[in-house]
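hey so i finally got around to running the thing on that chain from the lab meeting. sorry it took forever, my laptop kept dying and i had to restart like 3 times. anyway pasting the input first so we r on the same page abt which one it is
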Amino acid sequence: MEIQAPAAPSFLQQPTRHLFFTGKGGVGKTSLSTATALALADGGKRVLLVSTDAASNLDEMLGITLANAPTPVPGAPGLWVLNIDPDTAAESYRRRVLAQMGAAASDGERATVREQLSGACTTEIASFDEFASLLSDDSSAYDHVVFDTAPTGHTLRLLSLPKAWSGFLEDNDRGASCLGPHSGLKMQEAHFKAALAALGDAARTTIVLVTRPDKGAINEAEHACEELRALGVDNQRLVVNGVFQASDPSDAVACAIAELGRQALDALPASLRALPQDRVPLRAFDTVGLPALRALLAPAAAADHAAELAAELAADSAGGSAAASAASMATAEPVLSQGGLDALADQLAAAGHGLIMVMGKGGVGKTTVAAALALGLVRRGKSVHLSTTDPAAHLAATLEGEVPGLLVGRIDPEIETQRYIDKIMAAKSPALNEQERALLLEDLQSPCTQEVAVFHAFSKVVGEARSAFVVLDTAPTGHSLLLMDATGAYHRQMVREFAGHTGARIVTPLMRLQDASYTKIILVTLPEVTPVSQAAALQDDLRRADIQPYAWVLNKSILASGTHDPVLAARMAGERKQMARIAGGLAERLFVLPWRSKAPVGVAELSELVTAP
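ok and heres what got predicted. didnt touch it at all, straight out
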């Protein structure tokens, strides 16, 4: 199938003021959004690039330090970058709410409100408040605002907030306790309504669904398409990133990769096929630095940039060709590797029970690794509960079957929220009159109740690992960090409440996560610069909370595949650099999962990953 890339993607030809890039983790949202913002700035526009992802890697791509205020990008006149930092946004929100209380408020009342505003739901709504401001007049200094969003599930939650909060506020004249006093919530109402209007206005906003020629990524894009339409957001278009075409029909690996992509695109769902569409070829280079980002959407520049990198690699290989150098690298053993997932499953099974949390950037294969390890433990005679905190929830589609000894569950936000509401109402209703019950239910129906409910469900799953194995497939990094924040906040609250109680002993979820004999964190990454950087950053965040990752899994390694395709050979050279980087002290243990011509979907395929060769 011939892929003819246009001189520029069609979404750049008549761009709306707001451009949202969303999709499954790892499909290239950050690369495409940044390249788009750069192209608009190079064309003479004033552009603000905004990250709503708590785990953004824009700093590495652009070589700058991100801040919660617009920062100019050196070498790109007209381009500014803003990172919506959840902690900074929450503190700013708290100050504005406290200011609304007026001088008559006592110190005790202010302390109570600040405590109310310390939870995860406040962080979420504060981040949304920043986001909503950028859809209104607060960004009038820019011709375009380009949003690099978190992976799909978290982004759908963000985009649904205007509708959720607008509906909650419509008949609510008191405000919600989890967000402080009436004035603190009501003052956001105009922002919510303006954001909702801007999101659905095709003249102002375009939602760019990003996917790769991969069944899982396409399924998530289809889900996002339908969810957005349910929110009244029909102004969508599709970009298929990383379309690969084999250059040599004798290269079996390259041809297999190209064929998998072709099959996925041939099966594109009708809802996505109906959208305006662009396709971006797989490039031979990582999109780090302005030259690479400028080359991503320009075919001629891409060829020139790839040629420069090939020349550098050839020079480094003492006169050999780039392809030959990369091929020689492929024969070397992966550094640090202690084997495949079968060896990791053996090590984990030796503990008898415990919590195994599989974490990492979206799109690196967390669900595959979690499902395979759960099956590996079952095969080794263990009872296992496999669950997920990911709003996108791919576990069932990955397993495609039931296995004796394996319980598969999901922390479903909607179900858990209703359970939490029912529990609180049942506990408190008997002591309340009819009006008080109505007010309590009104408070519990606010959108931030979901964050509390999900944390309670997570805590329950963590506790199950006292007597069995629990394998948890977590949401992409940014969303998982918010859950970690909630875990830390709960721990601090419990410590305060039990302070001074002689003989009292508490065990919080955070304490279980910090216990290396109870919890083992598995960080999954791909052999590329951005996923490795994000895994390293996640590891740093965990260590600051006194949580030490147990091992890294390097997924989809092509080092030993034997391909000589020039695009893939260049990417193998990049993989080797990342392996050396991991060997420099990032991981105590490394397990390598090679690239497979057949997607690891279904019990049989997943079981192969944890079976010794």
